[in-house]
Amino acid sequence: SVRLRARRVRVFVMGGPLSPVSLSAVLLLLSGGFCSGKDYVLTDDGGLGRVFDGIGGLSGGGATSRLLVNYEEPYRSQILDFLFKPNFGASLHILKVEIGGDAQTTDGTEPSHMHYENDENYFRGYEWWLMKEAKKRNPNITLIGLPWAFPGWVGRGKNWPYDYPDVTVSYVVNWILGAKQYHDLDIQYVG
């Protein structure tokens, strides 16, 4: 019989994130204890390590996720199911999206929700659509926003928005509030 006495499993990582290969190795080693017929106790009494929150995906940099909205049905829905539906396909637990900043960040440009300080539009871009599709399939998915760039006005014409933290924070907070007000999306984290 197998008895687990701890409520959380912590994965110990030395020097960076756990790769999929390392995670597989850890799970394989742990599974050996489950097959032995003896009690296996897993604890986090030491308080060290990170909590494993799940597997996530990223949509940003004007990349290929932009093309997904243009796929014909039923293919688009099938791909979204494979990405976000629990216990099916990738079953992503986390979706991190770029907070568009009207700038070339990698493969393309994602539009900002505020081209100018008094210009708010929470329907620009495709990340809103992608987050809503993810939520439809998995209401418990964790949503994260990350600005990779900022419109020029945020930095008052400079390429460094952090000289004006009140403006930068307001820009990001407005995106979070717009996600809730216009799309009923709860953003759990920003980076």
TrEMBL record:
<dbReference type="GO" id="GO:0006683">
    <property type="term" value="P:galactosylceramide catabolic process"/>
</dbReference>
<dbReference type="InterPro" id="IPR017853">
    <property type="entry name" value="GH"/>
</dbReference>
<dbReference type="InterPro" id="IPR013785">
    <property type="entry name" value="Aldolase_TIM"/>
</dbReference>
<dbReference type="GO" id="GO:0016020">
    <property type="term" value="C:membrane"/>
</dbReference>
<feature type="domain" description="Glycosyl hydrolase family 59 catalytic">
    <location>
        <begin position="52"/>
        <end position="191"/>
    </location>
</feature>
<dbReference type="Pfam" id="PF02057">
    <property type="entry name" value="Glyco_hydro_59"/>
</dbReference>
<dbReference type="InterPro" id="IPR001286">
    <property type="entry name" value="Glyco_hydro_59"/>
</dbReference>
<comment type="similarity">
    <text>Belongs to the glycosyl hydrolase 59 family.</text>
</comment>
<keyword id="KW-0746">Sphingolipid metabolism</keyword>
<dbReference type="GO" id="GO:0005764">
    <property type="term" value="C:lysosome"/>
</dbReference>
<keyword id="KW-0442">Lipid degradation</keyword>
<protein>
    <recommendedName>
        <fullName>Galactocerebrosidase</fullName>
        <ecNumber>3.2.1.46</ecNumber>
    </recommendedName>
</protein>
<dbReference type="InterPro" id="IPR049161">
    <property type="entry name" value="GH59_cat"/>
</dbReference>
<keyword id="KW-0443">Lipid metabolism</keyword>
<dbReference type="GO" id="GO:0004336">
    <property type="term" value="F:galactosylceramidase activity"/>
</dbReference>
